[in-house]
Design goal:
Rossmann fold, binds S-adenosylmethionine
């Protein structure tokens, strides 16, 4: 199936991804892992026209929805990529090439036998730290208390990252699609902000 709207065909571009090749000028790059229907990233793109954004999402239906919305709204500083977060991080991004990584409401896989499917594990955290440029920012939100404790432990254990003031880093951030749903149920949200040393 062909690309839809602002959907990036990884087979048609040179890897590792490069801001200038993707966006026509050497912009800072930010990525959202598990961008869902693109609600957060599209708002963020409009608010930050001088930044190049990449959303990665493995569910093609949501990815296409987001890519089509971007095209309809004329938002051209964002590309949506249909692959896994792991493929984007390990194969498509160069070390030190990204100024921010956003991970909002990653699937918590609550059953013990499914924990191995969780995105947050030490090798993925280490690779996020590696693709971040010095002082680059990782922001994470989850509504799942048990997953939040694990995420907190994994981020604290990564020596290339240091915690930074979450209140300031999350101020004015647009809500994600899941966040809007969870807010209706008044579910508490756990937030993490860490910078690359
Ligand atoms: C709970 S939803 C949250 C979506 C969005 N971030 C939000 O807050 O509205 C998690 C999303 O991550 C996607 N996802 C889960 N694991 C992924 C992976 N390894 N790579 C890319 N996307 C993934 C799912 O398909 C789903 O759309």
């Amino acid at each position: 199936m062909g690309a839809v709207g602002q959907m990036l065909d990884l087979g048609a571009v040179r890897l590792p991804l490069d801001g200038e090749a993707l966006f026509g000028s050497p912009v800072p790059l930010e990525v959202e892992l598990g961008s869902g229907n693109g609600q957060f990233l599209l708002h963020w793109a409009v608010a930050h026209p001088a930044v190049g954004l990449i959303g990665v999402e493995r569910a093609r239906k949501y990815l296409e929805m987001a890519a089509a919305r971007a095209e309809r709204a004329g938002i051209l500083n964002v590309w949506f990529v249909h692959t896994t977060a792991e493929d984007l991080l390990f194969r498509c991004l160069a070390p030190g090439s990204v100024t921010a990584v956003h991970v909002y409401f990653p699937d918590p896989w609550p059953k013990n036998r499914h924990h191995k499917r969780r995105f947050f594990r030490s090798e993925n955290v280490a690779r996020v730290a590696e693709v971040l440029a010095p002082n680059g920012l990782l922001r994470v939100k989850t509504d799942h208390a048990d997953y939040a404790s694990l995420i907190g432990e994994l981020l604290a254990a990564e020596s290339a990252l240091q915690p930074t003031a979450a209140d300031a880093e999350f101020e004015g951030l647009p809500a994600t699609n899941f966040e809007v749903k969870y807010a209706r149920d008044a579910r508490p949200v756990h937030r993490f902000a860490f910078r690359r040393l």
